[in-house]
Write a structure and sequence with these properties.
Length: 333
Amino acid sequence: MIILGIETSCDETAASVLKIERGRFFILSSIVSSQIDIHRPYGGVVPELAARNHIINILPVINQALTKAKVKPAGIDRIATTTGPGLITALLIGVETARVLAQQWQKPIIATNHLKGHLYSSWLENKPIRYPALCLIVSGGHTELILMKSSQSLKKIGATLDDAAGESFDKVAQMLGLGYPGGPAISKLAKTGNAAAFKFPRPMVNEPNFNFSFAGLKTAVLYTKNKLPKIDQQTKADLAASFQQAATDVLVQKTIKAAQHYKAKTVMLTGGVAANRQLRVELGQAVGKIKASFIVPPIKLCTDNAAIIAAAGYFAKPSPWQKLTADPNLEIR
């Protein structure tokens, strides 16, 4: 099976051609047109700007993906496109493009959940996944724990009650004047900082559930920063390192608690924040101690791309192109 994936949920215009053969996944092409430089002056994504640039980029990106994969439209078996969650103005560009292509090429179309794309990115590694499995999806807009009893049996067992982990990284970076995107900036600065310099809270780690909260941690950083008489570069690095350690501790401890409770045999880490090296290392070490398998995709598959959307499209059923709609608040069901 060959699937064309299309992703426009936020500020990345992406297309990918994915081949699935005998249960193994092969990325024939993955093209991503980034808008980071366009949105950086605003300190975040501007929905209208994102949509305009998706309009400009979407067809060239799809053409590049097909050309690199050496696949013609006739060779495509289905089209998978992100229908949510995300920015409605951005989602509509991908949805409408997919609708037109599905109609013109007479191909089945798959409405794909962006979060499921992150979840199924683990399948692109072609590693054995033993059940029950637990997936931590951690990104700019979401922090969720998904229990899997099979490849298509999904149950959300935990989520953030306020800010997502990635959102807190962006906001702390903004407090420290590090610019956008905040995650990579915090991670880079934290390398020269002392993670024990500031005692930030680990919200909800002792609560008898698997939910998260990062608003209080973010606020603690703000109050601490405002009380400091002087903030030099080393102090900024210490703040970044202490914050990153606190956020990592919360994510690791809650995930391991859930994995032990449900006796998970595989633990997966996915989403944009999964690109954070410290989180990758510390969660991997913690999973090893409970004798479970650990899967984390390469960094290029953690951030938004269309290969993960095509992967999710493999596990879903086609929809009539006439009924395809964008849902900015789509959840995993």
